[in-house]
Structure formats: C-alpha cells, structure tokens
From TrEMBL:
Bilayer-spanning residue ranges: none
Protein family membership: Belongs to the short-chain dehydrogenases/reductases (SDR) family.
PANTHER family: BLL7886 PROTEIN, SHORT-CHAIN DEHYDROGENASES/REDUCTASES FAMILY MEMBER
Pfam families: adh_short_C2
Protein's name according to its UniProt entry: NAD(P)-dependent dehydrogenase, short-chain alcohol dehydrogenase family
GO molecular-function terms, A-Z: oxidoreductase activity, acting on the CH-OH group of donors, NAD or NADP as acceptor
GO BP annotations listed: fatty acid elongation
Entry-linked InterPro entries: NAD(P)-bd_dom_sf, SDR_fam
Amino acid sequence: MALLQNHIAVVTGAGSGIGQAIASGYAREGAKVVLLDVNAQAAAEAAREISQSGGKAESFALDVTSREDCVAVAKQVADKVGHVSILVNNAGIARRNGMLGALETVIEDWEDIIAINLTGVFNVTHAFLGALRAAKGRIVNIGSIQSFVHVRTPSSPAYTASKHGVLGFTKALAAELGKDGVRVNAIGPGFIETPLNEKVRASDPSLVKIFLDHTPLGRAGKPEDIVGPALFLASDLSGYVTGSIVMADGGYRTI
C-alpha cells in the first residue's frame, strides 16, 4: 500500500520549489494534497499537474502572515476537502542582507522574514491544530542548515534567527503534542536549487562555490532531494520519531 494512503496533506509554499516537490511526492504515495501559496496561480498550476498525473490535489491562496486568512483557509479545507492529518510548513523567504546596511532595509528584512518564516509557521499550525490533534497527525517544518549555523556567505541575521526559531518551535510543539499522538519534526535542507535562489545563483557563482566547497557530496541539492525525508516524517515509517530534524544538506554540517 502507498505510504500516505487515506491521508490529507496540506503543504504551504507549494506553488514552486521544495513545497511543490513535496506535494507531488505525497500525491504519488496516495495522499490527497492541498497546495497553499500566496501565489494562487502557481498553486493552481501545480495542483493541475498533480491531477493530470493521476493524483488528487486542491489549491487555495494563502498569505501565512495573516492569522485570519489561515483560520479561514483551514475551514475551507475542512469543508471542501476533509480532515487534515499532515501539515508541511514550507513557505518562506530569504534575503541576504546583513545588519550593517541601510536602517530601513535591515528593519524591513527582519519584519518580513520573521513574519513569514517563523510567525507564519505558528499561524498555519495553530489554524490546523484541531484537525491534526483529532487525526493524531504529523507536522513537518522546513528548517535549514541555518537552524544551527550562520553560513559563510552574505546572509541575513533575520533568516538565521527565523530558522533557529523553526527548530525551537518544532521541539517545543513535539513535547506538548506527544500526548495527543501528534508527531512534530523538521527537515534541514542545505543549498537547494529553487526559484527562491535562482537569481542569486545566476548572478553570483562565487556564492554557489562557497556552498559547494563546504558540501562533501560536492553538488547542490534539488527539490526532489527533500521529498524522501518528507515522506519518511509524514508516514508510519517514522512512528517513533518526534522533536527531531532530518538534515538533507549534502553533509554541509559535517565539516
């Protein structure tokens, strides 16, 4: 039987990149997937591709920074799709500016990154929490190598802080929800080639080299490299795993 048969899985930031890959992977393993993205058109197109490949998918527009919208979408999903048993908090942004730039830029980066990458995880999780507790569900949060380290590239302290926060939130929630049978884990991607960093990769090959020189596998990751860990953490294969982070970083943190 497929790993995720009879599950309904919600994936945020599912219109492209890692989120889209995870949604497609879950659908292949039998889940009915709900793709959420601030870009409604991208989410709808990704859902169509899944449906055309024989999977079951729905999409909704969602700005994870709006608690009211998260609650409203959770109700829509319950009414139109069913009871959610898997949540993947993937939506996020990255900006590579430090603390010493223009004051307005520093403040804007902090507010936007924390609002999406950290508070957004809280907002979506809280909105779906009732359904996840009822289903003894699974939550998978997308962290980063920057849940542990500040990488050796120009990189926003806000991004590092947000991903440290995601890991802390994962552990705290796992401890609180364990008694309800809800498992909460995270994935720590390394340097993954996604639309989020496409412009940076094209304009600054030296930055890419810094990452690859520090990665034992010697290559950048692809969104599909995150699908396996996401399937493991959402399925019964990880039935005794909670409060953990699975690193998918090509070995970055080993050196």
